[in-house]
Specification:
- The chain is an alpha+beta fold.
- Helices cover 36% and strands 18% of the residues.
- It contains 16 helices and 15 strands.
- The strands form three sheets. The chain has a seven-stranded mixed beta sheet.
- β1 and β2 form a beta hairpin.
- The longest helix has 29 residues.
């Protein structure tokens, strides 16, 4: 209704309708849990535990910390939607922004949210129950812990100072194996987002009894990782940028390759890693910069950006703290640094391919088994008829049959299937098939190939140099020299 002067009126939102809308901010299990960890860190917690039960019909998830806890009044404000908005001045280390995270993150997964918080002054409780809000069509919360919530708190050892956030009636999170899978998958992302806190001893993060180890996206402990230098830029506060180029996969162990792939795989994890304080808020991708696309040859490029939390409005950090957009003033500098890192990544692969040839002082031009042919805007892949081994096979008896087999292989190469698999398999490592070949297998292949080469000494020498400079034979130079010496004296 208008006020007495008839100039304005209050239009209050309908609680029952708005509550459903607030559940649809796009959280998944991992981003919802991360928002609660943010709150725990803001409350000076040093340990955060995620406990759960997947029992059908009685499933729950609880996030328990050993932080400062909240009084009745503080908790009442904490469960208020928009209680501390983006314009409020926050203390150093407070990772909040919109005053929505605790509520929207939790209710994105459940229908009943209970918060128990203990300080030296006692235990406070507030419960949002979506069905209660709908029935009353009002922003009503329960202020006394129910028997089930109190029993869960006791069973998981919530007895000291701190806060427990409890989710029940998990209509979106699921129950049974579905809930267990989601919680299990969240571990890799949580240890990524909070790796600075964990590595520096400021946070012990436990999910279902598993103590999470930090995941360093930049492989900084590896001797072959390239640090391209630090730049300091200005955009609503100081921004520090450090581009890294990770080692070629041949320099990594199988365990390092698997770990370096991160939650989404090597291709998807390339790009910028943006930190708001010590909290990662963007993990990979090229931030929408022009002409920056995900490409296999740039997968070793990862760039660390550290910004001041006070400038997050300039970076357009979203409610979930999982997406950012760089300020327009920084796009030119970030593009320049990204181009340098991407080119350095490409150079690593080029150096790797030509390394053996370069060491032995031969011509650095290499002959590859496959060539790409572009025609009318499309690409097709052909077996290279100029490869010495292929030439030898064609020159031998039955060359027409060999040519027919090569054409069949080219025409049936499942390029579309390969592309779809590479896109969908986020855990895929950046290893070419030949990089996994063991020496014994490479030895057997080399013997067969050398036996098929022509008798002409000059042609044979060209073929041997080509073979010795490509995968997998360039990884076993001593073995190649031994076999060549036995089968091709004088080459």
């Amino acid at each position: 209704m208008p006020d007495e002067a008839g100039l304005d009126a209050v239009v209050a939102p309908r609680a029952s309708a708005l509550m459903d809308s607030l559940r649809a901010f796009g959280y998944d299990m991992a981003t919802a849990l991360a928002d609660l960890v943010d709150n725990s860190l803001a409350a000076s917690a040093r340990e955060v535990r995620v406990e759960f039960s997947t029992d059908e019909g009685a499933a729950w998830v609880a996030v328990v910390d050993d932080g400062d806890g909240m009084t009745e009044q503080e908790l009442h404000e904490a469960v208020r939607f928009g209680g501390s908005g983006p314009t409020k001045e926050r203390k150093t280390g407070d990772l909040g922004r919109f005053g929505l995270g605790l509520k929207t993150a939790s209710l994105s997964q459940c229908r009943v949210l209970t918060v128990l918080s203990r300080t030296p002054h006692g235990l406070a409780c507030r419960t949002w129950d979506i069905d209660l809000v709908r029935a009353a069509d009002d922003w009503r919360v329960r202020v006394v812990a129910d028997e089930e919530a109190a029993g869960i708190a006791t069973s998981i050892g919530f007895t000291g100072a701190g806060t427990m956030v409890l989710w029940r009636r998990l209509d979106h999170a699921g129950e049974g194996p579905v809930l267990a899978r989601k919680l299990g998958q969240s571990r890799s992302r949580l240890r990524m987002w909070f790796h600075r806190y964990i590595a520096r001893g400021r946070l012990r993060l436990i999910v279902g009894g598993h103590v999470l180890a930090p995941w360093d996206p930049f492989c900084r402990q590896h001797v072959a990782t390239q640090d391209l230098g630090t730049e300091r830029l200005e955009a609503g506060g100081q921004v520090q940028v450090i581009p890294y180029v990770l080692p070629h996969p041949s320099r990594l162990s199988e365990a390092e390759i698997k770990d370096g792939a991160g939650p989404r795989g090597w291709n998807a994890q390339q790009g910028f890693y943006v930190y708001r304080g010590d909290r990662m808020v963007s993990a990979g991708g090229w931030l929408g910069l022009p002409e920056m696309v995900i490409a296999p040859q740039t997968r070793l490029a990862r760039i660390e950006i550290s910004m001041d939390p006070a400038s997050d409005h300039v970076w357009q950090v979203d409610v979930r703290k999982s997406r950012v957009h760089p300020p327009a003033d920084l796009e030119e500098d970030l593009t320049r640094l990204a181009v340098a890192a991407r080119e350095a990544s490409v150079a690593v692969f080029r150096r790797r391919v030509t390394l053996a040839a370069g060491r032995q002082g031969h011509d650095r031009e290499l002959t590859f088994g496959w060539i790409q042919e572009r025609r009318h805007g499309t690409s097709r892949y052909l077996v290279n008829r100029q490869h010495p081994v292929v030439q030898a096979a064609l020159a031998a008896g039955g060359g027409a049959h060999v040519e027919a087999v090569l054409r069949m292989v080219e025409r049936t190469l499942p390029i579309g299937v390969i592309a779809i698999e590479a896109e969908n398999d986020l855990g895929r490592t950046p290893q070419a098939a030949l990089e996994g070949v063991e020496e014994a297998e490479a030895r057997a292949d080399l013997v067969v190939m050398l036996a098929a080469l022509p008798d002409d000494a000059q042609a044979r020498a060209v073929a041997v140099r080509a073979l010795a400079s490509v995968e997998p034979f360039n990884r076993f130079p001593d073995m190649v020299a031994e076999i060549v010496g036995q089968m091709s004296p004088g080459v």
